[in-house]
Amino acid sequence: xxxxxxxxxxxxxxxxxxxxxxxxxxxxxxxxxxxxxxxxxxxxxxxxxxxxxxxxxxxxxxxxxxxxxxxxxxxxxxxxxxxxxxxxxxxxxxxxxxxxxxxxxxxxxxxxxxxxxxxxxxxxxxxxxxxxxxxxxxxxxxxxxxxxx
Length: 149
Hints:
mainly beta, Jelly Rolls, 6-stranded antiparallel sheet, 3-stranded antiparallel sheet, 1 helix, globular
């Protein structure tokens, strides 16, 4: 299958080795001036941190086709998401909403949430702003497709 990303295409296959190739290919889409503070590859995609200041943090989240984040909540932060590319299904406290580029989502502290990329051929890209005490381990996973709950 082909994945459309920033007007470029690449081939994607669902095997583990192909997933690693897909992760490697993500670096093709960063400009030479794109600088992030931290990043991590996850089984569902990747996150990149661009700003981390007292009281707030900014990340870019890329969700692979057919993948979703864990159903989770945070005790010490709220989040504001902007969908910048792709589409999917956002869940907040049991209510599901279809999301497309330009949609903005607010997740209150303690809100049970997840996002799913239910497409077969495009990335879902989110710009996330966290507000509050922004610790990476402030996450309670309630359900997880990858055995992390």
